[in-house]
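User: C-alpha cells for this complex, please. No commentary.
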Amino acid sequence: MSEPAKEKEAVPAATPANVVPAGAAAAPAAAAGTVAPKPAPKAAAKPLPTPVFNERHGKLILNSRYWPTELWKSPWSLPSYRKGALVLFGLIAGILLTGAAVGELSRWADKLYALIAAFVAARHWPAVTTDAVWDLIKILIVLHVVLINGLWAIWWERKISAHIQSRVGPTYAGGWHGWAQTLLDGVKLLLKEDITPTAADKWVHALAPAIVVAPVIIAFAPVTFGKQLAAANLDMGVLYIFAFAGISVIGVIMAGWASGNKYSLLGGLRASAQLVSYELPRGFSIVPVLMFAGSLNLSTIADAQAGYWHGLPRWFIFYPVIGPLAFVIFLIASVAETNRTPFDIPEAESELVSGFHTEYSGMKWSIFFLAEYGYVLLASFLLATFFLGGGASPFAFDHVIPSWIWMLGKAMLMMFTFLWIRWTFPRLRADQLMDFNWKFLLPWSFANIAFAGLFLLFR
Amino acid sequence: MNKGAMAPDQEQDTPLKSDSMFINLGPQHPSTHGVLRVGLTIDGEMITKAVPDVGYLHRGTSKLAEVRGYHHCVVLTDRWDYVSAMPNNLVFCLAAERLMGLNVPPRGDVLRVLMCELNRIASHLLFFGTYGIDIGAFTPFLYAFREREMILDLFEMVSGARLTYNYIRLGGVMVDVTDEWVAKCREFIEYFKPRLDEYDTLLTYNPIFMARTEKVGLIPPQTAVNWGLSGPNLRGSGVNYDVRKADPYCGYEQYDFEIPLGKTGSCWDRYFCRVSEMRQSVRIVLQALDKLAPGPVMAPGVAKVPKPQPGEAYAHVEGARGDLGIFLVSDGQASPYRMHVKAPSFMNLAILQELLVGNKVSDVIAILGSTDIVLGEVDR
Amino acid sequence: MIEYFSKVFRGAWATVAGMMVTLKYMVKPSVTVHYPTEKLVPFERFRGALLFDPGTCISCNLCVKACPSTCITLENATIPDPKNPAIKKKVAKVDWYTIDFGKCNFCRLCEESCPTKPKSVWHSLDYEVVFFSRDEMVRCWKAGTKFVGQYWDRKEKAFKDPEGQIQIQDVQARR
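Assistant:
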C-alpha cells in the first residue's frame, strides 16, 4: 500500500479546469492535472467515452464556490442577492403606493354598505336584509383572514426560518420563491388519508381540531384592522378576545387525551398547564393599557394612542418603563399561548414527537396549524393595537398612507418577531416554564399595574 | 393507557399500581441519535427507571476483522464512529503498526494529527448542532452543519470521501496534502474562529440553554471514573484525563494545547468541554499546519498483505468521544486473530441507567444528548 | 436586589445578542446548493462509483484481493492452447468483470492495488449512484458491453442497460 504515497498525485485543485461543461469534446484538459505525471500507457487504451456529467437538470458549480468564505465576501456582487433586495424594495413600495391609492378602507366599506342598502331599498326588501348581508360579508372576511393567514404565515415562516439558517426554503412550487408551497401542501393534506388510531377515542379525536380552531375565528370579530375597521365594534372587545382564546386549550387537551398515545397525552397535559398559566400574565400585562385608554374597546384603545410628543408617536410602548415592560410581558405570554419555541413544550419535537398532534394526519393535522398561526396573527394584531398605536402612522407628517397599511405593517412586524424568536431560542423545560411565569412574569405584570397607577396619580 | 405496552418487569416494580407509565424512547425517536432504545418508566414526568437497549446497529466488525486482511480492517474501522472516522483509522493503524514494527515518517504523523483534530472539530460541531435540536433550538444545527460541510470538503479534497475516509493507512497516510489544501484549511480556520464566539452567544451562554443544562445530569468525578467514562464526558466532571496528554501518540507532546475541564459534571459542563475543545483543536490544527515539513508520508516497505509476527498490541487514542482503544492479537496470519475495540460511546452509554433516574422527561433528552454517543460505535 | 436586576439584565442581553446573530445571517446570502438544478463538481480525488476499463486490464486479480467486501469478481480470458486445443490457456486479458455496488465500500483499495497504467479500475466522480433493483447493483462487463455499464436481470436472464438514471460510464474519468 505504499504505492499511492509514492505516486504523489497532483492536488485536487478546484480550478475551472476541473469543470467539464456538458458536451465537451474530451477530457484531456480536465484530467491533465492527474494524468500528467504518469507515464504513457503501454497498451493503447481504448478511448474513454466523452466525460460528461449528467446535466439533465441544470448547471454545474464548482465545489469551492458555495463556501461561505466565498459567498459572503461581497454579497452585493451576487446577482441573486441584488435581485432579491430589489424585489423586496419593490414589494414594499408597491404596497405603500397601493395603500395610498386605495385610501382608508372604512370609506370603501361605507360605500359598499350604502350600495347594499340602496339595492335592498330598490327591491323593497325588509331593511333588516341589509344588516344581514353586511354581517354575512363581515363573517366571511374574518373567516378568510384566518384561512389565508394560514397559507401566508406558513410560507413566511418557512422562508424566514430558511434565511435565518442560511438556507433558502421553498423555491420551486409556484415559481416565484415557492409562493404556492403552502397551497399545494394544503391540497396534499386534503388528499391524504385521514387516520384515526385504533386506540383513539374517535369522536373526541375528530372533535378536537374543531374546538381548537373555532375560537380563534370567533376571537377575530372585534379585532381592528384599521381606523373604524372591525367586524364587530364591541365595547368589551378585549375581554371577548381573551375569553374565546382561552377555549382552545380544551381542544388541545382533548386532542392529547383522545389520541391514545402516551406522548400525546403528555403533550396535552403540558399544554393545559402552560396555557392556563400564561393566560394570567397575558391578561394582567395589558391592564395598564386599559387604565390609560379607559376602555375595553379595541378601537378606543388604538385611538387613545393618537398624536405625537415632539415627533415621537404617543404609542403605549414609548411610555417610560411601563410601556416596554407591558409589551415584553405580553409578547412573551403570547408566544407561550401559541405554543411556539421557546415555550413549545406541548409539542416538543425532540421530546414528545410533536406532542398532542402526533396522531393526527391530513386536514385534521393542518387545522391545528391553522389555529396556531391564527393565534399568532391575533397576537400580532393585539400587540399592534395595544402597544404600537394601531393604525396610527409613526410619522407626524404622514397623511397619505392609510391606517390599514400601518396596521398590517405593524402586525407583520410583530409576526416576524414571533418567527424570529422561534428560530433563535432553545426550549424551556416544563417546570422552568412555570417558574418563569409565576415567579417572573406575573409579579412584574402586577408591579406594572402599580407603576401605571402611580403614573396616572402623579401625571 | 395501553396496557399491552407495559413492560413485564415493570409491574413487579410497582406493586401498588401507581400511575407509572412505560414509554419506549426510540429506536425511532428523533432524539436518540441513531437507533438507541431506552425503556423509560415514568411517574408523571419523573423517570423512575431507565434501561438502555443497544444492538440495533450491530455489524460484527470485531468478528469480521478476523477474516479480513489488515488493510481491509482500516475500512471496517471507518464504520464504527461514522461522524469521526479519522481517529478510528488511526487507532487501528497504531495498533497494527505496533505489531509490525512500522515507523511513520514525521510528515505522516503531522498529517494524522491534523486530520484527527479537524475531525474532532467536525464531530463536536455535529454534537453542538444536534444538542441544540435536543434542547429545542433548531438554528444552531444548520450553522454547525454549514461549518462541518467545509471540513468535509477538506476531507474530500484530500481523501476523496466525506464520511468514511480510509485515509490513515498502515505506515502513514493515503496521500500527501498539497499547498492548496493547506491554504484552504487556513481559510477555513480563519472563518471558523469567529463562528465559535457566535455559537457561544447563540447557545452556550443563552439563559434558556443554561437553565436547561446546568445542574442537570450531574456526574460526580468518582462516579464518572467508576463507570469508565472517557473523553469530554469524563473531563466535564473535572477529571483531567486525556490520552493526548496522558499517553501521547503521533507526537502530540510537541503541540501546545490545553485540556478544558468542567467543574460540576453537568450537561452544560460536558457541552462546554466540547465547545472549548473545538478552540483547542483549532490551535492544534494551526500548529500542525506550521509543522508540515516536506517529506514522505508513508513508511517504506509496507507489505501488500502484512503478516505480523505473533503477538499482541494495544493502542488507544483520544477520539472525539473519548478513549478509543484497540487490542490486536496476531497469530502470524494475514488477518488478526482477535480485534477487541474499547469503544468510548459504549462506556458513556452505560451510565445512562443511573443518570436518568430521578430526572424529568425533558431532561432525558438533555442528558442523552450531552453524552454524545454514536450508535455505530456502541454496537460496532 | 442589584444581583437580581443584573441577572435579569444579563439574561435579556444574552437573549438579544442571540437574536442579533440570527438576524445577521438572515441578510447574508444562503449557502444552499439547489441540488438537481445546480450540481457540485466533486474534487478530483473524489471516490465515486467504480469504473472499469477492459482494455488495460491484465486480469491479475489484485483488485479482487484488495477489496474488503469482495464486491469485485472477474474471470480470466482463455484461449485454446495451439498444441492441444482441448486445454484452455489463461491469458492476461479479462473475460468478464463485475462490481457489486451493493457491497462496495468506496474505499479506493482496488484502485490503489491496480498495477496497470492507466488504472483499469478506478473511482469516477459520479456520486449519483442510484438503483431501482438489487439486480441493477451488480454491474457487469463482458465482451461486447462497454465498461461496467450493464447488469444481469435475473428474471429476464439477460444483460440490460440501467434505465431512468445516470449511467456511470458517462461520467468524467479521472484515472
